[in-house]
């Protein structure tokens, strides 16, 4: 009553043993594919972590530089601006990691929070006891009167260009892991598991436990079994090309590092623009929001302090160099994996599974 290992000679197998063999080949095939995938998956997961660490390092450096600028040049509001600044960089980090947010919403939300501070601490430094309603009115007025000129929109444009490739690369790496995980658990067809049993275990039914499959026979069986996985070859090659494009895009003109370095300058220019137009802004705000309480004897307007280059350059340069090195290493490795799915049958037949350098092997029917 054997279904797979039918042979003219006497056999030591039963139908139940054939079923056990089918379960065994399915388990072994999954393990073999997982072993093949391990290095590739390990490399991608490692680079997801490395890229994220490099992004975080660049963002932290940019945040520290911007915080230093506010502390040095705009001390009256620096402490209160710390929270909106932290939120801005958190939002940018989440955007790179693929969160449902936009660079524009993050930047404009920051400038919405910044305007009440600039207005009450720098343009009209005597203001006190600002109510929530008045602060909210200032936030909403920012959108209408555009106190920061073109600087807020310029910052959106620069960061959107620079962060786009980083976000896409992060999402593409996650997609790569998803594809690999899916191929690991691709179900073997009934025909495939029977063919694998015939190749690996039918010799055992005749007591031939040391005979292994012939190389050509193994390749034929594996190509049939792995046909659906091998079909990924064209898309996988395209995927590698896309990763290469995104990595080059990150290193090209829309450079993440350059854009992040520019955040402090954009914020500085935006605040200077608002201060220079202080009287007109005050007149407009008074009409829209009314006049809040004033302290006795207004403080003199805060002087604009010349901005010095923040002393955070070294960590920023190191993070920049680390990111570029990671990019090069990763793309070099991924290029070598272009044929990963095209050659999966060859690699599954490699090693101990088949008989090499021997004149005796199993061809599915007999020892040859």
Give descriptors for this structure.
368 residues; mainly alpha
How is the secondary structure organized here?
Blueprint: H1 15-73, H2 75-96, H3 103-123, H4 132-145, H5 151-184, H6 190-200, H7 215-225, H8 227-230, H9 233-251, H10 256-276, H11 278-289, H12 313-336, H13 344-348
Task: Explain the overall architecture.
By secondary structure, the chain is an all-alpha fold. The protein has one domain. It is 70% helix and 0% strand. It is built from 13 helices and no strands. Helix 4 packs across helix 11 and helix 6 runs antiparallel to helix 7. The protein is rod-shaped, with a radius of gyration of 32 Å.
Computed CA radius of gyration, to the nearest angstrom: 32 Å
Strand content: under 5%
**What's the SSE pattern?**
HHHHHHHHHHHHH
> What is the general shape?
rod-shaped
Q: How many structural units, i.e. domains?
A: 1
* Low-pLDDT residue spans: 295-312
DSSP strand count: 0
Percent helix: 55-70%
């Amino acid at each position: 009553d054997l279904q797979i290992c039918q042979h003219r000679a006497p056999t030591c197998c039963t139908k139940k043993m054939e079923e056990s063999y089918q379960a065994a080949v399915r388990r072994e095939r999954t393990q073999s594919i997982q072993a093949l995938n391990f290095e590739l998956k390990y490399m991608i997961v490692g680079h997801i972590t490395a890229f994220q660490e490099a992004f975080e390092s660049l963002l932290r450096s940019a945040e520290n530089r911007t915080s230093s600028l506010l502390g040095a040049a705009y001390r009256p509001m620096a402490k209160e601006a710390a929270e909106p600044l932290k939120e801005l960089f958190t939002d940018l980090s989440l955007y790179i990691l693929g969160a449902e947010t936009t660079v524009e919403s993050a930047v404009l939300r920051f400038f919405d929070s910044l305007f009440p501070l600039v207005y009450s601490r720098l343009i009209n430094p005597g203001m006190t006891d600002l109510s929530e309603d008045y602060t909210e009115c200032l936030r909403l007025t920012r959108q209408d009167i555009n106190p920061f000129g073109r600087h807020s929109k310029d910052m959106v444009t620069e960061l959107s260009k620079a962060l786009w490739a980083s976000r896409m690369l992060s999402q593409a790496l996650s997609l790569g892991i998803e594809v690999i995980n899916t191929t690991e658990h691709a179900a073997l067809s009934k025909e495939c598991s029977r063919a694998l049993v015939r190749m690996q275990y039918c010799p055992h039914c005749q007591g031939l436990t040391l005979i292994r499959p012939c190389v050509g026979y193994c390749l034929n069986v594996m190509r049939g079994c792995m046909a659906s996985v091998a079909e990924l070859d064209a898309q996988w090659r395209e995927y590698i090309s896309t990763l290469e494009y995104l990595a080059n895009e990150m290193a090209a003109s829309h450079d993440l590092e350059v854009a992040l370095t520019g955040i402090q300058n954009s914020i500085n220019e935006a605040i200077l623009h608002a201060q220079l137009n202080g009287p007109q802004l005050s007149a407009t705000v008074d009409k829209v929001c009314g006049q809040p309480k004033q302290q006795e004897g207004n403080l003199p307007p805060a002087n604009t302090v010349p901005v010095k280059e923040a002393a955070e350059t070294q960590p920023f340069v190191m993070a920049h160099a680390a990111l570029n090195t990671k990019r090069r290493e990763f793309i070099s490795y991924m290029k070598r994996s272009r044929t990963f799915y095209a050659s999966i049958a060859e690699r599954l037949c490699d090693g101990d599974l088949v008989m090499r350098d021997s004149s005796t092997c199993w061809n599915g029917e007999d020892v040859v």
